[in-house]
Each structure stands twice: as structure tokens, then as C-alpha cells.
Write a structure and sequence with these properties.
Layout: H1 3-12, H2 14-34, E1 39-49, H3 55-75, H4 79-89, H5 95-100, E2 102-106, E3 112-119, H6 122-144, E4 163-169, H7 182-207, H8 214-218, E5 225-230, H9 241-244, H10 249-261, E6 272-277, H11 284-297, E7 302-306, H12 314-318, H13 326-330, H14 336-339, E8 341-343, E9 348-351, H15 360-364, H16 367-379, E10 382-386, H17 395-403, E11 406-411, H18 417-429, E12 434-442
Parallel strand pairs: 5-12, 6-10, 6-11, 7-9, 7-10, 11-12
Antiparallel strand pairs: 1-3, 1-4, 2-3, 8-9
Helix pairs in contact: 1-7, 2-7, 4-6, 10-11
Amino acid sequence: MELRDYIRILRQSWVLIVLLTLLGLAAGVLLSIAQTPKFSSSAKVFVSTSNGGTIGEIQQGSAFTQQRVKTYADLTTTPIVLLPVIAELQLDLTSEELARDVTAVILPDTTLIEIAVVGEDPALAAEVATAISESLTTVVESIETTGTGEADAEGQPVTASPVSLTLVQHASVPQQPVSPNVVLNIALGGLIGLVLGVGAAVLRETLDTRIRNQRDLESVTEVPVIGGIVFDPKAKDRPLIVHADPHSPRAESFRALRTNLQFLDAARPERSFVVTSSIESEGKSTTAANLAIALSDAGAKVLLVDADLRRPKVASYLGIEGAVGLTDVLIGRTELVDVIQPWGRSQMYVLPAGRVPPNPSELLGSSAMVETVAELNAAFDVVLFDAPPLLPVTDAAVLTRAAGGAILVVAAGRAHKGQVRGAFSVLENVDAKVSGIVLTMLPTKGPDAYGYGYGSYGYGYGYGYAPKEETVGGV
């Protein structure tokens, strides 16, 4: 994935990311509220040695102190120091439990030991810290003293330890709790929520196999995208947008598709194409009808054939009689000239489907259909066949082999990559090919919004005025 892919994911899933970030912030607040405030109080103990008379003795005593101070800090959390404190203050704790709340730190470049105690009661924490400091001085004095000053058996005096501990700072009662750290909890909660949101967005994008834009199609096939049709929520009410609103951006996209169609299969003299899709409801019928209108408006002699012999829609879209049509021609009941109907003011003609037969695939793959396609190619500049989807039935595949090429309609956000691959496989199995792809239902807003990338006009660029209708007789 490239940087622009991540930017597109962030734009597309910003609601999810913001929601999880807010949930993380809320979790940080709730955690801070749920935690019991704890206070920290500390006392300081100074470790010193008796100074000798010479410089060597002084240096020796200083080195001895530095070595001993580490031992005394570790000694702070041992039972020998803590048990007298528990007995003195009558604490309902064991020495192990009290040791968890006690820390002894040697202050850098000093011989000071800072003894800190954390607890829910600030006054008790201060009292315990002072008591532990006093207990430490007593225990060290007891351990380090090797005699009482009396002479030993050989008559040599027994001296006390040269090291002494002095409580130089009593613990004070803290006013502010050290935990919970509300700011830190909220910041961590928001950060975790943000990371989860971005991760969920990237994961959803990775697992989502739907076709959303031209780049998704490029990962499936090298067949060119020849047009992009924006999503129109009123498409069911006005399927023939080129006829109903010829100056709309959606109508302009069909005219751009018409222009790009001229470059498809330039080496093939016949200009017949099967308009199909991988699954249903991708807009193939409206695409075929609007493209036929756009071609006829440009002066081409166009025939739109409703080859969907299972669910024909062209007749209802164009408002013509569809009881007799292609089915009757294929079974020899009538001739083409009798069922092809003109539509509109230009050179556009329509061949409806006729009655729904029990064997559509056999009819579309018959020799009669091959002869019909050849006859239509000779009579018209462009022939468009509206065929059923490729995956549910094989009608479009066998018809594409007779016509020579297919225009695959892919609905953005509906069709999946696997379905598009399956449509290509169906055509390859019958030695047919896709000439071009049309992306339909493209969004008008967001990271996958329709624009210049599909060779057509976006919503911010189009007609600045609506031309006046032609008048008759000066009226």
C-alpha cells in the first residue's frame, strides 16, 4: 500500500477512527475515576563516616560510605526494618505487603537515601516513611556495631562502626495525590483508541474486496476502464438521463464513454458489443440505453438489442412495445425488419427481447444468433446488446463470442474482486474477451469520488447555462 492509499483509508474511515479515539479518551477518564487516589511521602537519611586524621583515611572512609549506602538502601525493604514499624504503628499489614509500597532511592552524587511510602492515607504515609527511616538507622547501628568499647581477650579495644545514619528530613503530609495521573491516563487512552481506530480501518480495507475505484480494477485486470458513471439516487425514476437531462454531469459522462468507445477494438471492423456485468443490479441496462442515445446523438446509426431473454428491461425503459422481438427472430417466426423499432429523433433503433423463452442460452448460442449478429453489423454503425450478468447464467458469454467483444459494467462498492475475476474466467472459457470496463455508481463525495481520473467531467465542471429550447414558428 502506498501513502495515498493510507490517506484514502483515513478519509474513508475517519468516523470509525474518531469514535474509537473518543472511546479511548472516555476509558481513560473512567479509569481515573475508578482508581483510588494514592499519596506519596518521603524522608531522607544521611549516611556519614567518621573522619580520619589523614587524607588516606578520609578517602578510605568515603569509599567505604559509597559501598555501604547501596546496601542500606536495599536493607530498607527487609523485614528486619519493616517489622518494628508495623508493631509500632499497629499496621494491619505483613512486611511483604508493606514492602510493595516502600521505595528507597540513593540520590545521585550524594550519600542521601530517600525513603518514600505510597498509601491511600496521606498522614499515615508520612508517619510510616519517618518510622521506616528511624528503624533503618537503628538497625544499621545494631548491625554495624561490633562491640561495646570494652577490651577483647587480647586486651585490644572494640570500637563501633565508623558509619552512622542520621534522619535529616522527616516526611511531610502530602497535599496532592500521585495517582491516578488523570492527564496521562486520558492521553494514553486517546492514543490507544487512535491506534485501534487506524488499525481497524486498515484491516477493514485489507479484508474488503469490493471494487471501489479504478485502482482496485487495475489489481484485477489490465483491461482499460473506458468510462465512469456517478451514482444517481434517482436513476430508477429517470434511467434515460441522456434523454431526460442532457446537460447533467451524469449525461456528460455517457458522452465521454461514447468518445472512448471509438478507440475500442479499432482493428475489428464490426462495432458490436455486449453490455453485461458480473452480477445483477450493476446498471448494465441503463448504461447500454444511455450509451446508445449518446451514440445516436453524435450521428451514428445505432441499434440497441435487448438480449436479456430472462429479465428484459429495455422496452420498459424506452417506452416501446416489447411483446415481439429477438426471440421471435431466432425461432424464425418473424423477420428483423418487422421487429426493429425506431426511437427518438436521431438514428437510434431498438430490438426488444420479445417473449421470455424456456431456453435463453441455447437461443443466444445458436447459429441463428450468429447470422443475426452478422446481419445487424452490416446494417448499423454500432450494435449494443444488453445481456444478463455473467456469473448467474452463461447467456452473455455465448453472445459475446458471437458479437466479438464485451463491455463489462462494474458497480463501485457492490461488485467484489472475486466476482470480476469470475466474470473474466467465464468469458475466457468460451474464448471471448472484454473490450473495456465501465465503472458505475461512483460516489460523488469522499476519497473515491468521481472526477477527472475516469476521463469525464466532475461535478465542479460542466455547463454554466441551460440552452433555450428550439421554438416553432417563432413561438
